[in-house]
Amino acid sequence: MTTLLQTRPTLAHLDWLEAEAIHILREVAGQCANPALLFSGGKDSIVLLRLAEKAFRPGRFPFPLLHIDTGHNYPEVVAFRDRRAADLGERLVVRLVEDSITRGTVVLRTPGESRNRHQSVTLLEAIEEFGFDACIGGARRDEEKARAKERIFSFRDPFGQWDPKNQRPELWDLYNARVHKGENIRVFPISNWTELDVWQYIEREKLELPPIYFAHPRRIVRKNDLLQPVTTLTPAQEGDLVETISVRFRTVGDITCTAPVESSADSVAHIIAETALTTVTERGATRLDDQASEAAMEQRKKEGYF
Q: For residues 35 and 249, what is the distance between their CA atoms, to the nearest angstrom?
């Protein structure tokens, strides 16, 4: 006699991850009054958009898309962000670190300082402006050690701060999004995904990406074992050796602190092959500011960072 257990379909690894993420997105929609989905045009947030489509289509998303723009993002990524939101017919809210600088809530120590860490201030201002009680992000636990401490529903106090010792249990995949006025939740539906999972999902779903994710020639200088792109924001300094080599980006943040990696991978299949062999974490290979040390990232998160 065939048992019920024997007749149940076997889900592949990506199917399990997808199902978990869709469940989390629906929990946010069911529990939260006014959530937002953080969308930068990067690969992780592109995956989040596909998951949201599967969770809520043919209806509209039960949240707007939100991007905190440093003003120093790669133009290819910003153009992709705008086009993708328009294609989906979803509302895109963009708030600029530049406006926080104008208001005086962000003060740069030097004009050339990276604006990356200052996104925290602009994000908290956007949360207050719109009354968001949850922000859905694409952070993954494999990125670095501080993010590995995150719960999927990560509680933030009225100051937007994260305290790793003051988080709620998530036994049996039960999530608690209840907050008092001024508090909020950061939700990470792809916490349990790896960089390789993301690329395999992109291949399976045939997702479009900004072109800088694929190998292309770019002028760089070598700094502390990382490749600094030569741009108007990050010009070569006296004594720097400028090279033109084939590179791709593993992550696409602020130009001033995001490095490419040397690569000839010009397709998703080739990127998957490269990713399967890499021994350096995504942020460890691409961060020019502090190489995403655990202490630095944890402090940023305590201040309200993604």
A: 29
How far from 45 is each of 40, 62, 77, 168, 216, CA to CA, in Å?
Answer: 6, 16, 12, 25, 22
- 42 lies in the same domain as 164: yes
115 within 8 A of 71, measured Cβ to Cβ: yes
Whether the pLDDT of residue 304 is over 60: the answer is no
Indicate the residue type of 49. L
Answer yes or no: is pLDDT of 226 > 80.
yes
Same domain, 84 and 163: yes
Same domain, yes or no: 189 and 238: no
* Residue 166, domain member (yes or no): yes
pLDDT at res. 302: 57
Three-state SS for 35-70 is EEEECCCCHHHHHHHHHHHHHHCCCCCCCCEEEEEC
In a domain, 2, yes or no: no
Asked whether 10 and 37 are in contact (CB, 8 A), the reply is no
**Residue 5 confidence class, pLDDT cut points 50, 70, 90:** very low
Whether 4 is in a domain gets the answer no
Rounded Cα gap, residues 10 and 26, in angstroms: 23
Q: Do 138 and 258 reside in the same domain of the chain?
A: no
Domain with 49 in it: 9-194+295-302
Considering the domain architecture, whether residues 51 and 115 belong to the same structural domain is answered as yes
**Per-residue CA distances from 108 to 35, 239, 287 (Å):** 30, 27, 19
User: Where residue 106 sits, what CATH number does that domain have?
Assistant: 3.40.50.620
- In this structure, is residue 279 part of a structural domain? yes
pLDDT tens per residue, range 160-188: 787 877 787 777 888 888 888 888 899 99
What is the total count of domains within the chain? 2
How large is the average pLDDT for residues 104-123?
88
Is the whole model's pTM more than 0.90, yes or no?
A: no
pLDDT attached to residue 288: 62
Q: Would you state the pLDDT for residue 265?
A: 96
DSSP per residue, 242-286: -EEEEEE-SS--BTTTB--EE----SHHHHHHHHHH--S-TTTTT
